[in-house]
Amino acid sequence: MVFPGMGPGTFTDVARFMSVNPFARKLLATADDVLGYRLVDRYRESDGHYAKDAQIAFMVNCLALARWAHDRLEVAPDYVVGPSFGWRAVTAYTRALDLPDAISMAARLADCMEEYFRDEHPGLVTHSIARVPQDRLAELLREFDERGEWHDVSCRVDHDFTMITFGERQLDWVLRRVRALGGLSLYTMKPPMHSRAFTSLRHRITREVFAGLTWSDPAVPVVADQDGRVLTTGEQVRDLLLDGCDHAVCWPDVVSALSAAGVGTLYVAGQDGLFTRVACTTRAFEVVPITPRSVMRPVRGRPPRRLLAARS
What we know:
alpha/beta; Malonyl-Coenzyme A Acyl Carrier Protein, domain 2; Alpha-Beta Plaits; 2 domains; five-stranded mixed β-sheet; two-stranded antiparallel sheet; 13 helices; 14% strand; globular; disordered C terminus
């Protein structure tokens, strides 16, 4: 089961799902109790794709989709992975945190990260670059060094798809250089993500967000998005979320680990336009998207049982 990273989306994309789907409605009731307000109302009024209430709603919807997959497709996953933002849903899905604590954690994380990047790194962005293989990417990174400009690789999505963090003032130059290298610039994220420059964020989350939380061993083994390690303890899951602050994501390592374990199918609980759509993923697995739109389609009869390959 894959819980995807969060991409751009709007309330209208998921409004009907959140109001009609019984799994979503039940989860929303819990979220409302934890937050002290109606999440749907705040999400409707939120400003920006990655606003706090949009983040919590995305997490809740992903969990609802996973519960739908259990009920309708009888999915019983052998492993769980949640690249980047997806780890918030992983904590609740695997019961490493109970649901109210996971929702509260997600809300406090959103506040903590907004304050941190506003105060500590207002000038950094993370930029996504496609169609630039690693040898040509190395040219771009050397040019950063020659210009005396700080940079960091934040995520390797595929052999020719990378996210780099750097100073926003360099963005126009990067756009030109990527075009010259025959690549494609996709989107720029602000605040940035997954960089060794953000170790102080790790310490801040430990103090302000994780204090008082009780972490249990996950009910399903978790695969780390940094290197494909299999995690089986609550402490490991906790540390994985902290690693997301200052360690780069390496999705090809996740693909390799799951392939080596005998996994043949990925069920993706949530809208994903990135990790489960790149070539390294689609070559290795059957990918089954489970999205608000897909589960709202009328279905005649009960779908056949579909399970992930057993662990070797």
